[in-house]
Specification:
alpha+beta, D-Maltodextrin-Binding Protein, domain 2, Fructose-1,6-Bisphosphatase, Chain A, domain 1, 2 domains, 14 strands, 8 helices, 5-stranded mixed β-sheet, globular
């Protein structure tokens, strides 16, 4: 990653975030792409904006965006560098005027996440960085500071905060509660903002178990997680992969279930999470 482009990318995110808020105020249309899979006219407009700039800035790189029908072809070409962009991450929160959606950009180099940007326009917070580059945040007063990655207290019978999506909580929450003492579930719309909660030490582990998440949802946030020293693995404990052996080429969904957490805590909790999934899916 040539970090000389960082400022331009952040400026684009700020402009697109302003555009999203303006379009929200003036009204937008919601359409269903598939079962429980929605897109808005705001997603489409921002997707075009991001696509225009990234094709101009990085003409030799592959470009994958959520609303671009050429994304599957771009992934299948096997480019050494792939920009993965989600114009609105957390569409349900966006549609219902909740603040926990984000605009996200990630860079995949040789199938490894190396840089990421996550911007929450309503919260007026941006997070960015990459492995070897550190982590940073822009606050609502526009000040820029390092993003502190805080190791939380280890899990105990009184304390075990986990981030989990609503669908996974509905399916696996009861078994997780029975097996993990002190479990406290947290959630918010955006995959990226959930990962940031773990980086900031507000949760021990983020679980994404339903295998519907796509690479434009994950590349940017997981680059931040790896820069923070978090473990990013699947339910077996294997490292997450982004090659065609682990990603469905037709949908760009991850085949692996995703866990992101602090290494010691995740090592302790992984057998219990595995048992909870096994019990639930055996029913």
């Amino acid at each position: 990653m040539d970090w000389r482009w960082d400022q331009a990318i952040r400026d684009l995110l700020l402009r697109c975030g302003t555009q999203a808020r303006r379009m929200t105020a003036s009204g937008f249309t919601v359409m269903e792409k598939g079962p429980a899979d929605y897109v808005t006219t705001v997603d489409q407009a921002l997707d075009r904006e991001f696509t225009q700039h990234f094709r101009q800035w990085f003409p030799q790189d592959g470009l994958i965006t959520e609303e671009n029908p050429d994304s599957r072809h771009a992934y299948a070409q096997g480019s050494q560098r792939l920009w993965c962009i989600d114009p609105i991450d957390g569409t349900d929160d966006f549609v219902h005027h909740r603040p926990y959606y984000a605009l996200m950009i990630g860079l995949l180099e040789r199938y490894q996440p190396t840089a990421g940007w996550v911007y929450a326009p309503v919260l007026e917070r941006m997070y960015w960085g990459g492995v070897g580059q550190g982590l940073y945040q822009q606050l609502p007063d526009h000040s820029i500071t390092e993003l502190p990655s805080k190791v939380p207290e280890p899990p105990s019978k009184w304390y075990c905060p986990l981030v989990i999506g609503d669908k996974d909580r509905q399916r696996y929450g009861a078994a997780l509660t029975r097996l993990i003492p002190g479990v406290d579930f947290q959630s918010m719309g955006s995959f990226g903002l959930k990962v940031v909660e773990v980086i900031r030490g507000r949760a021990l582990v983020y679980l994404y178990l339903n295998q519907r998440v796509k690479i434009w949802d994950t590349v940017g946030p997981l680059a931040l997680a790896q820069a923070a020293g978090l473990t990013c693995c699947d339910l077996v404990g294997n490292p997450l992969r982004f090659d065609s052996g682990a990603v469905d080429v037709a949908t760009l969904c991850h085949r692996q279930r995703i866990l992101v957490g602090w290494p010691d805590a995740l090592a302790k909790l992984l057998p219990l999470i595995q048992e909870a999934v096994q019990i639930t899916e055996a029913v």
